[in-house]
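Q: Second attempt. The first request was missing the SMILES, so the protein and zinc ion are both included now.
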Amino acid sequence: MPQTTTRNLTVNFDRLRDDIQQLAAVGRHEDHGIYRMAFTDEDMEGRDWLRDQIESTELHYYRDGAANVFARTDPDSDQPTVIIGSHLDTVPAGGHLDGALGVLVGLECLRRIHEEGITTRYPLELVAFSDEEGRFGGPFGSQALCGELNPEGIYTAVDLNGIYLSEVMQQHGLDPMEALQARRSPDSVHAYLEVHIEQGPVLDNLHCSIGLVTGFTGLFKWFIRLKGKADHAGTTPMNMRTDALGGLSEFSTEIPRILEENGSDNSVATIGKIDLFPGTANTVPGEVEFSLDVRDPNVDILAELALAFRKALSAIARRRNLMFEFDILSELEPSPCHPEIYNTIKRAAEQMDLPYHEMPSGAVHDAQILSHFTRVGMIFVPSKDGRSHSPAEWTHWEDIETGANLALQSLLTIAEAE
Ligand SMILES: [Zn+2]
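A: Got both inputs this time. The predicted holo structure:
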C-alpha cells in the first residue's frame, strides 16, 4: 500500500456517509422534511449529537456564548486557527444537506488529519454556527463570532410567530447576553473555509461536481405597503376604486423590465409574500403588503436597482392614487471570496484533476458574514435539479466525496501556508 502523505490524504467516505445519514434522522418528520429550526429541541439534539461525535475523537470540544459548537486541534496553541464549518439548523421541512454537509465534511477533515498524526502550522477548528437560516433574523452565530451583535438586537430578535430569541435561549439554559462574548478577534482566525450544496440548478445542469465560489451576492429585502380604499365589491364602480392589488399587479409585471434596464445577468428579484386587506371575497382590497427580495453580486448595480424599484413604485402609487410606504427588512453588501484562499482551492482542484465551475453564490451563507472578518473560501457541490429547502434536496454521493476530498486538500494547504 502506498504511504499516506498529506498530498494523497482522502476522507473516510463511509464514515462521512454514515454521519450524514445519522444526522438526517434528527428532527425528521413523517413528511420526510427535517425540522431543526434554530433553538428548537430538535436543533439542540443535533448539536448534542455533534458534541458526542467530537468527544468520541480526541479533538477538543467547546461551545461559545452564541451556542456555536466547535472542535479544535491543538487547544493550547496561541496561533490563529483555520476554521472549517457551516450550520446544523434547517428551515421547516428542510433537507438533510443544507448546512449539515459543511459541518460533517469539516468534522471528517479534522478527524482524518488527527488520525494521521499530522500537525499543521495553524491549528484547525470545526464550527457549527447557530441560526444560519435566520429564524431570528440572523445569521446569529456567525454574526456573534464576527462581533456584529449588540444587546438591543439580541433582546428584540423575534421569529415570525412572535417568539423571542432570548426566551428560547433561556429555555435551553443559555444566557442570551453571553452571545456578545462569542466575539473573536480577527487575529485569532487565519482563514475560514465552507463546503455547501449549491441550492440552485447550475452545477447539476453542467454535470460538474465542483463550484468554486467567487463571492457572495448582496441583497436588499423590503416590506412594501400600498394603501387605497376598501370598498364594497358590488356597489363600487370600477372607475371609482382605489384597488391596492391593482398597484401590486402592475408593479410585478414591471420587474423584468427594471432588471433588464438597471440590473446585470446575475440580478434576480422576487415577490415571495403577499397579504391583502381586509382579505374578504366581497371587498375591494384596500391595502396590500408584500415582500421584495433583490440580489446582485455588484454593489453599484444593487444601489441602482434599489433606486429604480423605488421610482417605479412611487410612479405607480401616484398614478393610481395609492399611498406607498416601505420598510427595509435587511440589506447585505456583496463581498468577494478572498483571492488567496480562492486560488488555493483552485490549485488543489487542478492538482486533483477535478473539473470546476467558477460562480457567485446567490444564497446567504455563514461564509458571507465571515468574509467581513477574515479570509474566506467556499466550495459548492451540485444540488440535484437545484432543489433545496425541501425534502427533495439531494446530492449524489460521488459529488459529496469529491467535494469533501477537495476541502481536505484545501484545508491542509491553507493551514500550512504563511
Ligand atoms: Zn445553508
